[in-house]
């Protein structure tokens, strides 16, 4: 009767007599991954892509081909024309408000008279890494709590020209838009918050008071 040249014939016992020589199992062979592409779109959270191609198709029941495309999260902070994206995309880098005292002394010594401002945010979410922060230099991160209102001061030299604002302060963001922040000194401490309002005259309390870097 007829004989067959596939993987199933070994179970059904109807392989051709020269199966081992004429019908070897050949798995799929693919190329190496290409380099990652740029972000699909600038100025928004999107994705980048890398691809590979098939060098040899599987034969005689060989292992099937794996995925030929991979995507990864991606954000570009610059437009195709080279201008900076909206502030809402840039994570705010923050540290303890106590650092601002030394900074103000240095600014006064340099003759800087630029006025800063404060921004109030409501903490929406934070990573577990904030609670694992080790004192003394990172102990301030333990005071971060979901739902709390925090006050973050923007002062020289973190004020960036020409608009004299701190990166990541949420300027131009939509109402109730989730913004991102990152604690300096612990890359595992980060999260999201919503901008409440800007205060041109700073009066941040000693508790829940932070500083833009």
UniProtKB/TrEMBL annotation:
Keyword Nucleotidyltransferase among UniProt keywords: no
Annotated keywords: Disulfide bond, Glycoprotein, Signal
Coiled-coil annotated residue ranges, if any: none
PROSITE patterns membership: SMB_1 (PS00524), SMB_2 (PS50958), TSP1 (PS50092)
SMB domain ranges (all copies): 1-28
Domain of life: Eukaryota
Keyword Signal: yes
Name under which the protein is recorded: SBSPO protein
């Amino acid at each position: 009767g007829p004989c067959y040249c596939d993987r199933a014939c070994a179970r059904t016992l109807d392989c051709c007599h020269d199966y081992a020589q004429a019908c070897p199992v050949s798995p799929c062979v693919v190329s190496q991954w290409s380099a990652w592409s740029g972000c699909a779109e600038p100025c928004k959270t999107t994705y980048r892509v890398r691809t590979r191609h098939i060098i040899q198709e599987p034969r005689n029941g060989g292992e099937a081909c794996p995925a030929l495309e991979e995507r990864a999260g991606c954000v570009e902070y610059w437009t195709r024309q080279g201008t900076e994206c909206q502030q809402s995309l840039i994570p705010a880098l923050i540290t303890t408000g106590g650092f601002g005292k030394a900074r103000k002394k240095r600014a006064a010594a340099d003759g800087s008279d630029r006025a800063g401002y404060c921004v109030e945010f409501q903490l929406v979410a934070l990573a577990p890494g904030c609670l694992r922060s080790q004192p003394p230099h990172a102990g301030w991160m333990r005071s971060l709590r979901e739902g709390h209102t925090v006050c973050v001061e923007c002062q020289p030299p973190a004020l960036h020209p020409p608009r004299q604002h701190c990166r990541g302060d949420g300027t131009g963001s939509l109402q109730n838009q989730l913004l991102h922040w990152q604690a300096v000194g612990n890359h595992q401490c980060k999260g999201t918050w919503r901008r409440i309002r800007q205060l041109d005259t700073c009066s941040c309390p000693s508790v829940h008071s932070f500083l833009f870097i």
